[in-house]
Specification:
The complex is a heterotrimer of chains A (about 300), B (about 260) and C (about 425). By secondary structure, chain A is mainly α. In chain A, about 70% of the residues lie in helices and about 5% in strands. Chain A is globular, with a radius of gyration of 20 Å. Chain B has about 260 residues and is an alpha/beta fold. Chain B has a single domain, classed as P-loop containing nucleotide triphosphate hydrolases (Rossmann fold, 3-Layer(aba) Sandwich). In chain B, helix 5 packs parallel to helix 6. The two termini of chain B are about 30 Å apart. The C terminus of chain B is likely disordered. Classes of the chains: A mainly alpha (about 300), B alpha/beta (about 260), C mainly alpha (about 425). Chains in contact: A-C, B-C. Bound molecules: adenosine-5'-triphosphate and magnesium ion.
Chain lengths: ~300, ~260, ~425
């Protein structure tokens, strides 16, 4: 029972974090056709900026300033880098962001050093929200869920209630029509890229102190976010949401299950003398997103919510 | 009558709520040159996409020489001897003209997906490529990258790739669109020679070309065929005049 | 119109042109490889040359899918690694004389690698090649992560952290090579590098190779000339996996050890950078890229710990300003000086070069000063007897002035070109 409740809560908070990342990625992709390989690098920047800002002021200021800073950097990257590469096609754009991810990681290593920095959960939230069956659930995780939902509402408001949102929405459903919208398209591209990066930065602020803030955090998170986007169906916000939660829950439940394959499939004659039998479900947790990816590819190549394409 | 080369039976296609092709039935005899005309957005290209396997029909069937082909993947349909061109030039832009045509030739020369032989050493492939290039008057530009061709030559290359595989049913989607008068004339000659002894289905807006070329004309309006008859009858058909031709000047009988 | 005496033969390049464009470069390449040992190179040089040979084959195999097939993969090292692992196991089988393995010379291990890579490509490519474009790229990344993680679960094949090691001095000797000393391994590497290069070049000349280019250009149209683009991609993918495995087999013999790191995202990213920096639109591009980057990797990493940063900057600069890579720059230069007004072209070129060097100088000072400041050991960057600390005004002048001058020069050159 406690595994289920905690798995659920942890899964949801982790899933929502994934959605913060994947929604920005999806937004950028739908609008510009660019898969931002550096997305996780912006996530890392968010965590590091939050660390710096928290050090000199407080976490609460960092919560607002760090994403904005990351967003600004994103906008600058779009304006002076991506825009230049755009005429060479999407592969070139993807490669540009790939190089950017490399570069950001190296710069972070120089500025902040190669080891983890001490970015901590703020004292105000560093207590147990409740106890259940003798285990406690950290309040900060509740806060993460709260912020993620706030972001969801904010995103919804932006998309449905503002002019820029309407244009972005039009772009989501009819990507080819964006080009006919007039001269402000480059500006919208810059804004969207900036906002997408800011969302990644926000995720970094939220996650950097739950996990570890070190130069490897981008490389660890990146592939999972891409899996989320592909599993959900590239370019679909609903799909990204579903896939985020699915992967969040899957991973967190798996972590709680200490069974080995031999115990599960013992009736098939599998013993823990065999290599497969010795693998435990919890050790599979990090691989699950990728397994899911392969399964989806075989059985539903367009992704959960993606449209069938040629 | 013998088996029609191409036979459409109760063909329907919807995109969401929009019904683009509505109960189209049509038989085209082997060796016939058949033109499809209709206003913009009538569904002519969509019809071609259904026949050639790019789209699957919502309902209805397509038969090629008596064999049902609807639902087959496009490349299977092509192998069965149906080839098509596109309204917007759809060529291999980073290859030369010769390489473009050679790709079109490969399959019919039994090259398959071969990876064990040199493409350049097969005389039959080279010979056929040369013939097609000559046929389409592209020999002078054989080694020009396709992307650098002038528009009219790109259209010619589009046709060249289409006929290169030696299919006996050829669908051409507005082959002369956007061409000047003399270029159109050249293209019509090319099409006439290319379709000799073959079944040709052609979508065209240029009435001169159609009345010059076609044995029979079908008029497609809002996804429905409202008339299908020889040119002389189409010209006199009041429904056609009203629906499509309108006040457009019809060319007089060609001598 | 043409007269009847003309035929398809007129279209093909003349025998002389064929020799110059196709046979000659390969002959020169082979001649260089043959001449190298005559110069009595050092051990370091051999080590570097072997790594280059392996990377040349690896990068070319990558370009089969990226440059010629239009498929961007972030997981190509998987095939290199799996091929290499299989070769590694085969090496041990040869040593133990398992079954028929005792009768097979070590020299042929790259073929085992080829088989392993191709098999992996055939299995993994089946679900991944249904998609092209961005989706394919993401899938390749996910699959690579999966295989890498699995490598730590199946110790019997991957050998855990330590990997699998072996001894190449076993089995039958071929060509009198015991494969022990490094200069004997050289012939092995040289042989397979040439085989790999010729093999992949020949592939571009086959129907499948041409169809691969056609599919890259326009997958939709390929369907309407009777081919299934997914099948084309899949077959090409298998071959690319095979040649990557060949490189893996070469590496297995060269290093006598394979660890799971060989199939991680790091070498996958590196091969992408090698191929792209070299120039993916040219067959020789990845060869240039492999030689240059292997050199940088081994030399630069001795000089500076920030070499990955320089690599990132180089890569981004190539993506932004020279998308056809080094090969594009070289051939563009050759065309330019042969074109009209070579003098002015050359002038502009020199101006650009100087501009780039100036910017590079600013960058180097900035990075090196920062790295030393970051390490916090109080070390200071001291080129040419200068003493450049982060608090030194001279350091910042040396960053800003060359950078500004460099930007100005390159811009000026571009403006002049446009004005012409
Ligand atoms: N994939 C699609 N999804 C939705 N609607 C489509 C699609 N393809 C075509 N249509 C719609 O079907 C209608 C018919 O298009 P089609 O291209 O077949 O017309 P057409 O007769 O070829 O016109 P034209 O003379 O301009 O070439 C158009 O309204 C078009 O918007
Ligand atoms: Mg049309």
């Amino acid at each position: 029972m406690e595994t289920i409740v905690f798995g659920l809560l942890n899964g949801v908070s982790y899933g929502l974090l994934l959605f913060m990342l994947s929604s920005g990625l999806t937004l950028i992709f739908s609008m510009m056709g660019v898969l931002n390989f550096a997305h996780a690098a912006f996530y890392m920047l968010g965590a590091y900026f939050a660390f710096t800002i928290t050090g000199s002021t407080s976490f609460w200021i960092a919560l607002f300033i760090a994403p904005v800073l990351v967003g600004l950097i994103g906008a600058v990257v779009e304006r002076f880098g991506l825009r230049r590469v755009h005429p060479n096609g999407h592969v070139a754009e993807l490669l540009f962001t790939f190089g950017l991810a490399y570069l950001i990681e190296e710069i972070v290593k120089i500025v902040y050093g190669k080891t983890a920095v001490d970015y901590r959960v703020p004292d105000l939230l560093n207590f147990a929200a409740f106890e259940l069956y003798g285990a406690s659930f950290p309040a900060y995780r509740i806060f993460v869920i709260f912020i993620a939902v706030a972001m969801l509402v904010g995103l919804w408001f932006l998309l449905k209630r503002t002019r820029a949102g309407l244009i972005i929405q039009a772009a989501l459903t009819h990507p080819h029509m964006v080009g006919h919208l007039g001269h402000n398209v480059p500006f919208i591209f810059m804004m969207v890229f900036g906002i997408g990066c800011a969302l990644a930065g926000l995720a970094g602020v939220m996650a950097g102190n739950i996990f570890v803030t070190d130069p490897a955090m981008a490389v660890q998170m990146g592939p999972i976010v891409f899996v989320v986007v592909v599993v959900g169906g590239i370019g679909s916000l609903e799909g990204a949401f579903l896939a985020s939660l699915l992967i969040g829950l899957l991973q967190n439940f798996a972590v709680g299950i200490n069974l080995k394959f031999a115990e599960i499939f013992g009736f098939l004659g599998m013993t823990d003398l065999s290599e497969v039998g010795r693998i435990s479900v919890s050790s599979l947790a990090p691989v699950l997103p990728f397994l899911l990816l392969v399964l989806i590819l075989i059985f539903r190549p367009q992704g959960l919510m993606g449209e069938k394409e040629l | 009558m013998s088996t029609p080369a191409l036979s459409l039976k109760g063909l329907n296609k919807s995109f969401g709520p929009a019904k683009i092709i509505n109960e189209v039935s049509l038989d085209i005899a082997p060796g016939e040159r058949h033109a499809i005309i209709g206003p913009n957005g009538a569904g002519k290209s969509t019809l071609f996409n259904l026949i050639s396997g790019l789209y699957t029909p919502t309902s209805g069937t397509v038969e090629l020489n008596g064999e049902a082909i609807s639902g087959m993947p496009a490349h299977e349909i092509n192998k069965k001897g149906l080839s098509r061109s596109f309204q917007v030039s759809n060529i291999f832009t980073n290859m030369t003209v010769r390489e473009n045509v050679r790709c079109g030739v490969l399959h019919s020369m039994g090259q398959g997906y071969a990876w064990w032989r040199n493409i350049g050493s097969n005389k039959a492939v080279q010979q056929k490529t040369w013939e097609v290039l000559e046929h389409c008057a592209l020999t002078d530009k054989a080694n020009v990258p396709a992307a650098l061709l002038p528009y009219a030559d790109q259209r010619a290359l589009e046709i060249a790739i289409t006929i290169a595989g030696g299919a006996d049913v050829i669908l051409l989607d507005e082959p002369t669109a956007g061409m000047s008068h003399s270029e159109t004339e050249r293209a019509v000659n090319l099409i006439r020679r290319a379709s000799e002894g073959k079944t040709l289905v052609i979508v065209e807006h240029d009435m001169g070309v159609i009345f010059d070329l076609a044995d029979r004309i079908s008029v497609l309006v809002y996804g429905e065929i409202i008339a299908s008859a020889p040119p002389s009858e189409i010209r006199g058909d009041p429904a056609v005049r009203e629906a499509y031709l309108g006040d457009e000047e019809l060319p007089e009988e060609v001598a | 119109m043409s007269d009847t005496t003309r035929g398809f033969a007129d279209l093909a390049p003349s025998t002389g042109a064929k020799f110059r464009q196709r046979t000659l470069p390969i002959l020169i390449f082979a001649a260089i490889l043959f001449a190298i040992p005559m110069a009595g190179p050092s051990r370091t040089f051999y080590t570097l040359a072997h790594q280059m040979g392996i990377n040349i084959v690896f990068a070319l195999s990558y370009n089969m899918i990226l440059g010629k097939g239009g498929l961007l993969s972030f997981g190509h090292a998987v095939y290199f690694g799996l091929g290499g692992y299989l070769a590694m196991h085969a090496m041990n089988w040869i040593e133990d004389g398992v079954g028929i393995w005792g009768a097979i010379p070590m020299f042929f291990l790259p073929l085992v690698g080829f088989a392993g890579g191709a098999l992996a490509g055939a299995i993994i490519g089946w679900p991944s090649c249904r998609k092209a474009g961005t989706t394919f790229a993401m899938i390749s990344l996910g699959v690579a992560e999966l295989i890498f993680a699995a490598a730590f679960m199946f110790d019997s094949f991957f050998g855990g952290e330590q990997g699998i090691s072996g001894d190449r001095m076993n089995g039958i000797e071929l060509f009198g090579l015991s494969m022990g000393p490094i200069d004997e391994v050289y012939w092995f590497i040289a042989f397979w590098t040439v085989v790999g290069v010729i093999g992949m070049w020949a592939f571009t000349r086959t129907p499948l190779g041409k169809l691969s280019e056609a599919t890259r250009d326009n997958a939709q149209r390929v369907q309407f000339i009777g081919y299934n683009p997914q099948r084309v991609r899949y077959l090409v993918f298998i071959f690319a996996g095979g040649f990557a495995g060949l490189a893996g087999g070469m590496a297995a013999v060269n290093y006598e050890i394979f660890t799971p790191d060989a199939l991680s995202l790091v070498p996958s990213g590196f091969v992408l950078i090698m191929a792209y920096v070299g120039g993916i639109t040219y067959f020789v591009g990845p060869i240039f890229g492999a030689i240059l980057l292997t050199y940088m990797q081994s030399m630069l990493s001795d000089f500076t710990e920030a070499w990955l940063l320089y690599l990132g900057v180089l890569f981004i600069a190539i993506v932004m300003f020279a998308p056809r890579g080094i090969a594009g720059v070289v051939f563009g230069f050759l065309d330019g000086v042969r074109g009209e007004n070579p003098g002015r072209y050359f002038g502009r070129w020199i101006m650009r070069l100087v501009g780039i060097l100036l910017m590079l100088m600013g960058l180097i000072v900035l990075v090196e000063v920062s790295v030393r400041w970051s390490n916090g050991y109080g070390e200071v960057y001291e080129p040419f007897g200068l003493h450049l600390g982060h608090g030194n005004v001279l350091s910042w002048l040396l960053v800003i002035l060359p950078a500004v001058a460099g930007v100005w020069l390159t811009r000026f050159a571009s403006k002049e070109e446009e004005g012409q």
